[in-house]
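Working notes for the structural subgroup meeting. M.R. asked for a predicted model of this chain before we commit to crystallization trials. I am recording the input and output together here so anyone reviewing the notebook later can reproduce the run.

Input as submitted:
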Amino acid sequence: MADLQESANQFIEDLIAQNMAGLMATFTPEGMSKAMALGQGPQPQGPVTRKEAVLLAAEGDDHPVDLVVGTDSQEGIIGTVWREVGGAWKVNDIHVKKQP
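Returned structure, recorded in token form:
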């Protein structure tokens, strides 16, 4: 099983590449419904020059991770909450913390 950092890094790669199959496999059912409710919001314009998964302090079974994606002039932050489910890390919550 990949660790949380590896899973979050792969999620960012799938997000940037718009790899829907990879993204969908990473969500719990609850996380998927929250992602669908968000829709597709604004994205940084231009080539991505920064991408980072910042692991925050765990809160019980919940493991918050901020996903930072930026260009030379813009930065967006997506807040996620991960849980270990069946031996794999899954996104159980997602929200926009900072729009580009």
